[in-house]
Every structure is written in C-alpha cells, then in structure tokens.
Amino acid sequence: MTRPNSATGERGFLLITVVVAVAVLSVMMMVSLPVIETQLQRDLEEELLFRGRQYVRAIELYLQKHPNLYPRNLEILFLEKCLRRPYKDPMTTEEKWDLVYQTSGAGKQSLIIVPSQFAGEFANRGFLVGVCSSSPEASFREYRGKKKYNEWAFFVGAKEETEMPEIQVYTGK
User: Fold this and answer.
1) Does the residue 50 lie in any domain?
2) Cα separation of 139 and 149, whole Å?
3) Residue 1 belongs to a domain
4) Residue 173: what pLDDT?
5) How far apart are CA 125 and CA 141, in angstroms?
6) CA dihedral 12, 16, 22, 25 (to 10 degrees)
7) For the CA atoms of 79, 153, 65, 87, what is the dihedral angle to 10 degrees?
8) Are 140 and 41 in contact (CB under 8 A)?
9) 58, 105, 140, 170: most buried, per Cβ within 10 A?
10) CA–CA separation, 102 vs 113, rounded Å?
11) Quick one: which of 134, 138, 126, 153 has its CA closest to 53?
12) Strand extents, DSSP E, the chain
C-alpha cells in the first residue's frame, strides 16, 4: 500500500525546520550585535589614537625641516611630505579635525582647541601644534583622564603617561 501524502508531509516538515533555524539565527545575531558594535567602537578609538599621533609626528617633522616655523594648516603637512596622506577624523562623518593651537599671553603658554570652522580666523593668534576629534560622544576608554573624544587632544610636547592639561575650547569671537 502506498501513502499518497507522504512526500507532501515531508516538505512541510522541512519548511518548518528552515523557518525555525532562521528564527534561531536571527535571535543569535541580535544578541551578538551589541558586542560587535562595541568592538567596532573600540577599533575606531585605536584608529583615532593612531591618526592623532601621526599628525603630531608630522608637525614635529615639519618643525625639523623648518626650524621655528609652525605649519599654517594640516594640508601643508601632506604637501611638505611630512604626512603620508591626510587622515579623516575616524569618530565623525566629516573629514575635518579640530585644531590645537598654542598661544602665549601674559608670560604664559596655553593650549586652545579651535573647531575647524573657526580655524581661518584663529590662524594668526597662535601656533598649530596638534589635532583633536570633533566628536562630542563619550568614549569607552579613558585617554589621559578624558572621557569624550573632543577632549582627546594630540599635540606636540604631550606626554602620554600624564593627565591631559586643561585646554580651552575656542567658541568664536
């Protein structure tokens, strides 16, 4: 005796098995997504550290080529072959970095972070000594006592093992 519906029943069982398998895989992916996002964020933080240090090294090379002459902008570091290529800020979708200037006044030197939109008007008031991310997001790791990316300043003369000095942020005229 033959069973006429046996092939149809097996196909239905296979379909249910595939649907259950896809559902289980979807749940597993949703559980692992935060872990993946965290790892990507940590990788971006490492890239920020690398790129910031590359700009500091490029400014130091520029100062070796041109004693007592600081660069006017970041593009000149690339044009003078002090920087292999212009790096984007990895923590933002924009390409521009905030700039770190050193100023002298009343016999005291201070550092100021200047957002990229104000860089043109600030260029003659100080010396370009570094870069800083423009992202106000909180970081996973703490860098030199600072927990936000726009507080992670990379500048010439910085000592990695010390706390970040107080740095003013320029907000316009």
Assistant:
1) yes
2) 6
3) no
4) 65
5) 33
6) -140
7) -20
8) yes
9) 58
10) 9
11) 153
12) 98-105, 108-114, 127-132, 138-143, 146-148, 153-155, 168-169
